[in-house]
Fold:
Amino acid sequence: MFIDYSKMSKFKNLEIRTFKTSGYPSYVNHWKEYRFKSLIIAEVMKEYSNVWWLDANIRVEKGNLTELLREEIGDFVEKRGIDNTSSMFSFVYTGHSNFPVLFPDLLTYFPTNSIPLLKSEKHGSQLGANAIFFVKTEFTIEILKWWVLCSLDQTCMNPPGAQVSCHFDKDRNNKFAHCFRFDQSVLNLLLLNCFQDHNKYFFKLGFLFSRTS
Structure:
């Protein structure tokens, strides 16, 4: 994809960086395995205490994003308490649980607390990794560490036979869809193992974002 950087110079606070893969295993260059996401976030978090990740096809629809996010975090802490509040937040509901898009081989790296939880629409739904907000805390660094280690392992992030095209049953929670969401499946498993409830890291601000493709 060609990017005309000259047209982007009008954005005052924009800095464009090239993700250099020379220091990583060669398979990091297999872009459709999505290993790059956790690695880029980890690199940026060395410099910044708050990090947004938005996929290239995500568009922000509202101008007051920071203000709305601050209000949502305040409500979260007030309702759940600081110890029950994540420092990593997803905004996009996928419409299915974690189970349909989870290759069993991943569980040899990160055993699940509960297969029924992975199938639960109420507490085990998979959330999108296409729009995420990170606050640099000890918890975030711990989760990010395991996400990065999985990205650097050849079969953790890419179990044998893994592919992104899904074949969902009418039941999008209890039946395996023979697909894998790579970085998204791994991150969701790590967070669900910690919190036992996706609602503890899900912000209902999905209306702030739309997909361009």
Remarks:
- The first strand starts at residue 50 and ends at 54.
- The chain has a mean pLDDT of 92.
- The chain is about 30% helix and 15% strand.
